Amino acid sequence: MSMQTDTSLASLPINDPALPRHRQLGLSDEQVLAALAGMQRVRNVDDRLWQLSRQGKAHFVITSAGHEATQFGCAWAIRAGHDYSVPYYRDMALALALGQTPLDLLLHGMGKPTDPASGGRQMFGHFSSRALRIVSGSSSVGSHIVHAVGLALAFRITGEQDIAAITFFGEGATSEGAWHEGMTIAGVQQLPVVFVCENNGYAISVPAHREVPVRDVATKAAGYGMPGVIVDGTDIFAVYAAAHTAMQRARSGGGPTLIECKLHRLRPHSNADDHSKYRSPEELAALAQHDPIDKLRDYAILHGLLDAVQWQVLQQQIKAEVDAATLAADQVPDPPLESLYDHLYGA
Ligand SMILES: Cc1ncc(C[n+]2csc(CCOP(=O)(O)OP(=O)(O)O)c2C)c(N)n1
Ligand SMILES: [Mg+2]
Question: What residues does 259 pair with on adjacent strands?
């Protein structure tokens, strides 16, 4: 195994360089359109949660805006319900890409008793689903890395083959002790686990150069005995290529990989944050150039997968779908007072 950081794109078989990129990667037109619709759908849910928080109906909002291509690109490489995904609070798009619905996410955001993640017990961003093998993260930044590595160690101990765990985190998390411990065990044991860093350049208001001592998080991989790969996290195909290669490598006994996806957080960290206090007006204006949905839409139109009118119609359909899900979630009664201590340890 190479200990060097591989900053080139991990490659998949390319049959014909004249083909569009998705075809070169073995992805169908339908898969690309489904991902585009899914990214737009989760952006609508994101919009809606911010509105609901202003109405006092959603308690906490963490945006995935700007991170969608990374999360959908990785989802293509995950066999949902087979491989284990250990996301962090930023991964609403991943939860949707793996099979959760807008209603599931809205019930979670509104703390309803039918919230599939936790029955309204967890704060927003703790996505989980037993059926989809999505394991809830914990609020303490970076601590879930250890859970993903523990899963991979369990596969090793129980002799499970052809399976991998994949975990997600921000660049700020890579400065945490738990991240170091998890990466160390994964490297020492060469476990079937993939680490995905969604590097958006900020830990809330703290810029990356004040939280991470290296320019590229991927270079840290060398210290843990695994390859590190850098990709453009706004490019769904680049992310998929890297994630597919890393997951296949992990599932076939090749060991762990660290993938760094460079991208932009398009909105404030959470509904408790105001990013105009630490991002300049120029920086805020430039964010529009880094929207992964625009990028995939332009690609789809360029390759004739849909036209501008069909895109308009699709956007309207998705908005109507999210409107209906919002109404449905809003009609669910809040948890009754007497359920206050349900599911609590020792209650
Ligand atoms: C151990 C710990 N320290 C601090 C916090 C507060 N906190 C929540 S999110 C966050 C930022 C983490 O940034 P990063 O890992 O880059 O992820 P991003 O939010 O940018 O996606 C911080 C400091 C926390 N939850 N846990
Ligand atoms: Mg960050």
Answer: 196, 229
Average pLDDT, the chain: 94
Q: Is the CB of 125 under 6 A from ligand 1?
A: no
Of 139, 174, 180, 204, which is best to mutate to test ligand 1, by the most ligand atoms within 8 angstroms of its C-beta?
204
pLDDT more than 90, % of the chain: 90
> Are residues 195 and 167 in contact, defined by beta-carbon separation less than 8 angstroms?
yes
CATH number of 207's domain: 3.40.50.970
Contact 140 CB / ligand 1 (< 6 Å): yes
pTM, whole model, 2 decimals?
A: 0.95
DSSP for 266-325, please give it.
-S-SBTT--GGGTS-HHHHHHGGGG-HHHHHHHHHHHTTSS-HHHHHHHHHHHHHHHHHH
What is the domain range of residue 93?
21-333
In a domain, 287, yes or no: yes
Residues lining ion ligand 2 (Cβ < 5 A) are: 170-172, 200, 202
For ligand 1, atom 3, which residue shows the shortest CA distance?
Answer: 141
Q: Which atom of ligand 1 is nearest to the CA of 269?
A: 19
pLDDT digits (tens, 9 = 90+) for 226-260: 999 999 999 999 999 999 999 999 999 999 999 99
The answer to whether residue 148 sits within a structural domain is: yes
Separation between Cα atoms, residue 44 and residue 283, nearest integer Å: 23
Residue 176 CA: which ligand 1 atom is closest? Answer: 1
